[in-house]
Please model this.
Amino acid sequence: MGDYTVRLEYRPGDKNDQLAEVIRRLDDKCFPGKDMHREPIDTTWWWIIRDKTNRSPVGYAGLRYLKKPDDCAYFCRAGIITTHRGQGLQKRLIRARVAYAKRQGWSGVLTYTSDDNYASANSLVSQGFRFYSPGFAWAGREMLYLRLLF
Model:
């Protein structure tokens, strides 16, 4: 785990087209064939994991602020390139985003994952997230909804 750095590299309102392209390329590598159009880059905080050896980006994760209804954060798109999985990097991204949301004074974090993404669900649960049933299945009925309240 010590061979990587996790850093908030993009904030809402940033106009860094080069970094936006890095996020898009990571998304394509982590989720081949799946369109990222649902997660706007420019209104999201983005953390990038880089390999310390060559500074290459190997993972990313986004966080959006949802003022309504609960003044909380929302974990959006996250992924680790296949060759770097299994090293606890997803958990590092979870911890970094939770710490940021706490520093902002938000009430908690909401997210979801597909019902067959056991690795993601297990990582979230290991970091204190719990399953819940939202009043409206905003990401679809086949999804698992999780939250962490502060």
About this structure: The mean pLDDT is 92.
